[in-house]
Amino acid sequence: MLIGADCNNNCIFCMEEDRDGRRHRMQAIAPGEIRRILTANTFRQEVIFTGGEPTLNPYFMQYVRWARELGYTLIGVCTNGRRLAYAKYTTALVKAGLNHFIVSVHGPDAATHDALTRTRGSFEQSMAGLRILKSLQRITPLDIHSSTVLNRRNFKSIKAIYERLTPYVDQVVFNVLQPWGRGYTFFDRLMPRYTEVAVEFAHFLNGFRAPPRDVFLLDIPYCATEGLGIPEHNRGFNERRVHYDKLPDNPGYWPDSNIDTKQETQIAGGASQKAVLKKDTAELKDLLFVHHRDDQDQQQRIKRPQCMDCRFEPICDGVWKAYIQRYGWDEFKPVGK
User: Fold this and answer.
1) Three-state SS at 320
2) pTM for the structure as a whole
């Protein structure tokens, strides 16, 4: 759930290029609407608060409490971890019900991380936050994951990043840069070839007697990692997600809590909204848009006819169009069924 209008980092690869636009949209969503979203989606059982930086939202603690009251079993946050460096605040979040943390760390040291976040001191604060989470995990059950955006500046540091993070996290997740927002703007400076990343990751895994089950390489086409000895468990794409957004200058819609997931997906994909809406026209100004990851994929990713012969086609999201425009299709060979 997007609740972060601002961010206290300034990552060069951030997928949100238009920060003023995000602030305009996010600040238009009132706490009461967040409560309605949470109430309408209890069937999902899981909620992840994202941003921007969600810990900067002054109502974040209340949102966590609401999620717990409504019976969500997993209540998580995607965060840069900097505010978690304040033990009193982090302890209060855990007591409120937050039990799943995804903390972004983009290098094994301050020099690498701070250069990518363009925020001096951000690495030390993020690591301090992880240490506090680890201390709390000894008292109460918490899932602690890390998220690292792999790019030209850090993808050769996979082993060092993993070793730096494993004392504090349960899962180390490497996400290959997505050329979206600033990732697109700085594509030529930041985007590595998928095969380069795959070879580096395979070399890292080869250093273990058995591949560890706590590390993942995501947002990379399966065919680009095939034949390198990378287990399928350790590679793939991000999970599907749904989020709600307000576009103040356009009509939106509020999904009725009785609409099932399949129907909701059809609506988001462009089916007639009028067929399922039960709200009066006068209420449109208060309604929200539903967005699915698939919407973005359909617009920005591409497959070619040969992909239909690949055994991974049903679960593959395709390749970013921007990537193909720069690098072409040579890296991608269909994997026999």
Assistant:
1) strand
2) 0.83
